[in-house]
Design a protein that fits this description.
The protein is built from nine helices and 15 strands. The chain is globular and about 65 Å long. The protein is 26% helix and 28% strand. It is of the alpha/beta class and 330 residues long. It has two domains: 5-118 and 300-328, Medium-chain alcohol dehydrogenases, catalytic domain (Quinone Oxidoreductase, Chain A, domain 1, Alpha-Beta Complex); 132-270, NAD(P)-binding Rossmann-like Domain (Rossmann fold), CATH 3.40.50. The strands form three sheets. Strands 3, 4, 5, 6, 7, 14 and 15 form a seven-stranded mixed β-sheet that branches. The protein has a six-stranded parallel β-sheet with strand order 10-9-8-11-12-13, sandwiched between helices. The mean pLDDT is 96.
Length: 330
């Protein structure tokens, strides 16, 4: 393929710790080596993307860099028989957008083991409405629903207006679970539209959290934020309940004792969406494309273009972004 020019949301460091974000024309020959060249049609904005775009060395070590941990598009070239030109594919997780040029550029080149064929039932846009957030929510739901059924009781979702939280609320409600949402936002329209049965403000949820165990309320919980909120969710989960953990925006510390685990048999399951095996990854995407695809999915996102990313990055870092932000690169 010719050395095509393409647009990228590019982060540069002209001076130490001074990061500049701009739209820049790059060339596909500058992309890293890989098995599959993909023309990106859609990406999505995640908290990790905002960290990469603002120079967080824990996410991205070297600059200049193109962020974007999600990408969906069309295969342009393939060096392997698994994929061919014209295939519709998804790439999320692994090193995409962290230390490998990511989905905020119109082209990516990646190893074959990072690529998932778009499952029937999803188009490219819908796959990025889910993106890493939906995939993470899906992993959490997959693990939780192996044990917990709707008749067992309410499911708690924390950080419920964020990407993972809102998608978890939508999927669980669609599957017939009664969902209680914890949020710091005052506008609950999104959660009401997702079918949430009850909403608790973050401040109220964190009242009287010092006892080693709390009144058992939840059959299971999906926590997206960590810290004191995760600890409170664990302490208020019922006998033999399941709590999944996938985030640390509140804190990476867990202030808790062993009592919920040894007195109630509560299980805490970690969710690692970055490195999960491909067979499990494909299974979750197929669920998202079929049984877990809820009606409100097409109304949960805000669609933007590359030149609108800066404003959204500011909002997500302030914790003021709700639902999903879809990035159109067509």
């Amino acid at each position: 393929m010719d050395n095509v020019s393409y647009k990228s949301f590019f982060v540069e460091e002209p001076e130490k710790n001074n990061f500049i974000r701009k739209i820049k024309n790059l060339y596909i020959n500058d992309l890293p080596p890989g098995d599959v060249l993909i023309r990106v049609h859609y990406s999505s904005l995640n908290y990790k993307d905002a960290l990469s775009a603002t120079g967080n060395r824990g996410v991205t070590r070297q600059y200049p860099h193109t962020p974007g941990i999600d990408a969906a598009g069309i295969v342009e070239e393939s060096l392997v028989g698994t994929f061919k030109k014209g295939d519709r594919v998804i790439v999320t997780s692994y090193d995409l957008g962290m230390n490998t040029a990511g989905g905020f550029g119109q082209y990516i080149r990646v190893p074959k083991d990072w690529v998932v064929k778009l499952p029937d039932g999803l188009d490219l846009k819908q796959s990025m409405v889910f993106g890493t957030a939906g995939f993470t929510a899906g992993m959490s739901i997959f693990k939780l629903t192996q044990t917990i059924r709707p008749e067992h009781g309410d499911i708690l979702v924390t950080g419920a207006t964020g990407g993972v939280g809102s998608l978890a609320c939508g999927i669980l409600s669609h599957l017939g679970y009664s969902v209680t949402a914890v949020t710091g936002k005052t506008d609950t329209t999104l959660l009401n539209n997702l079918g949430v049965k009850a909403i608790i403000s973050r401040n109220n949820f964190l009242e009287n959290t010092k006892p080693p165990v709390l009144k058992p309320q939840w059959a299971g919980a999906i926590d997206t934020v960590g810290g004191e909120i995760l600890a409170t969710a664990i302490k208020s989960t019922k006998q033999d309940g399941i709590v999944t953990c996938c985030g640390n925006v509140a804190s990476f510390d867990l202030p808790i004792n062993v009592f919920p685990f040894i007195l109630r048999g509560v299980s805490l399951l970690g969710i690692d969406s970055q490195h999960c095996p491909m067979d499990f990854r494909s299974s979750v995407w197929k669920k998202l494309a079929s049984d877990w695809k809820f009606d409100y999915l097409n109304s949960i996102y805000d669609e933007i273009f590359l030149d609108q990313l800066n404003d959204k990055i500011t909002l997500i870092l302030k914790g003021e972004l709700k639902g999903r932000t879809l990035v159109n690169l067509k």
